[in-house]
Amino acid sequence: MFTGNARAWQDNNYVRGDQLVIDQQNGHFKAEGSVQSLLYEAKQKRKGASANVPVYAAAASLNYSHNDRVLQYRNSVDIRQGTDRLSAQSADIFLDQNNEMMKTVVEKDVVITQPGKKAMGDWAEYTAENEVAVLRGNPARVDDSENGSSQGGQITVSMRDNRVRSEGTTKQNPTARTRSVYKVKSNQ
């Protein structure tokens, strides 16, 4: 156990917090209080190209289980990678056998921002393999400064090809509707 602005490094990655607890025998790591972490070798795909872009995360606490390969950030979660930003009250990041992110599930007060775009909801799941985010809310909403906005019970955002699919009905609200506003571009 380490306390008082404690820091831990592994390769180029680090975690900082008011208290760090390392249980190497059971494969658990816990950070409490003003947690900040940095993962240097995170891959980001954009338009078919892949690059390593650091991921910064901040939260009130972090739990990591090596056996489950899950990072759990809790309370006031703020994750940034390049120009993308995600905030929520909780985030579970699932890693593959190479410790690369497979998917991220976030809940409560979810806001995802990219240049010119903002998505909001109560719950979201991002899958790295197909670069798709599914948002749910009452309603979930995506605002695109160039193309318009959509809202519905569930919105699927394909980041690879810049598409949004909105569904009104969900298990929680089978009679809901969708709403889309498109910006019409005039020929100048």
Instruction: Look at the helices and sheets and give the structural class.
Output: mainly beta
**Computed Rg:** 18 Å
Number of helices: 0
In percent, how much strand structure appears in the residues? over 45%
Explain what the structure shows:
By secondary structure, the chain is mostly beta strands. It has a domain at 1-84. The chain contains no helices and 14 strands. The chain has strands at 2-10, 13-23, 28-39, 43-46, 49-52, 55-65, 70-81, 84-95, 101-114, 117-127, 132-144, 148-158, 163-167, 179-182. The strands form two sheets. Strands 1, 2, 3, 6, 7, 8, 9, 10, 11, 12, 13 and 14 form a twelve-stranded antiparallel sheet that branches. Strands 4-5 form a two-stranded antiparallel sheet. Strand 8 (84-95) and strand 9 (101-114) form a beta hairpin. It is elongated and about 60 Å long. The termini are far apart. The relative contact order is 0.09.
